[in-house]
């Protein structure tokens, strides 16, 4: 059974940092691209960042470029999202998403349960 378990969310002040983790199991982790997607209150889904299976290619939405960094450890089956310079508009539920191939150009087939990030003073 494919499982994606996010952790690391919480309450942080504007300008602060958080590191989200996504622990994966139930599939060959190094065969799949992974993305982070978020959903703010009352808003739709927003793709944030993706990393290919080997970790050599990453891409970012303009809204987080320069502030967020995605990385992965294929030995430990985990993906990270380092979030710096957080803003109130980053408040959302953050989801880890598996792609059904090596690249983040492949479709998304499994989602984690999400972790809440709240940026507020």
Structure explained in plain terms:
The protein has 121 residues and is an all-beta fold. It is 0% helix and 50% strand. The chain has no helices and 11 strands. Strands 2, 4, 5, 6, 9, 10 and 11 form a 7-stranded mixed beta sheet that branches. A hairpin with a 6-residue loop joins strand 5 and strand 6. The radius of gyration is 13 Å and the shape is globular.
Strand residue percentage: over 45%
Main sheet attributes: strand count, strand direction, barrel closure: 7 strands, mixed
Judged by helices, strands and strand pairing, the structural class is mainly beta
Query: What overall geometry do the principal axes of the alpha carbons give?
Result: globular
Number of helices: 0
How many beta-strand elements? 11
Q: Give the C-alpha Rg.
A: 13 Å
Helicity range: under 10%
The average pLDDT value, as a whole number, equals: 97
Low-confidence stretches: none
Order of helices and strands, N to C?
Answer: EEEEEEEEEEE
What oligomeric arrangement do these chains adopt? single chain
- Measured between the Cα atoms of the first and last residue, the distance is 40 Å
């Amino acid at each position: 059974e494919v499982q994606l378990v996010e952790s690391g969310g919480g309450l942080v002040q504007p300008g602060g940092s958080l590191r989200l983790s996504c622990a994966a199991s139930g599939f060959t982790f190094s065969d799949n691209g992974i993305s982070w997607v978020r959903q703010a209150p009352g808003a739709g889904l927003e793709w944030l960042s993706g990393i290919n299976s080997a970790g050599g290619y990453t891409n970012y939405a303009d809204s987080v470029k320069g502030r967020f960094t995605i990385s992965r450890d294929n030995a430990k089956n985990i993906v990270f999202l380092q979030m710096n310079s957080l803003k109130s508009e980053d408040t959302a539920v953050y989801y880890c998403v598996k792609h059904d191939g090596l690249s983040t150009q492949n479709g998304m087939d499994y989602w984690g349960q999400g972790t809440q990030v709240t940026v507020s003073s």
